[in-house]
Structure prediction request, 70 residues.
Amino acid sequence: VDHTFHTLTLELDTGTVKDARVLDADPPGYFERAALAAVQKYKYKPKIEEGAAVERPGVQVVLSFKLNKK
Prediction:
């Protein structure tokens, strides 16, 4: 594949990242594993409601990978 720009859309639950999954990848089959590994390291300040941390399910994140041509 001769693409230099790759975009992935992932869905995850915030607070602590869990249940992350790839919703879309262009092109598919190249960066899904790296994208999932990256979002597993994300840290979020939780939303606070009535003094308690609240999880936010279904947050979507778009990651882009740009490759330099050699």
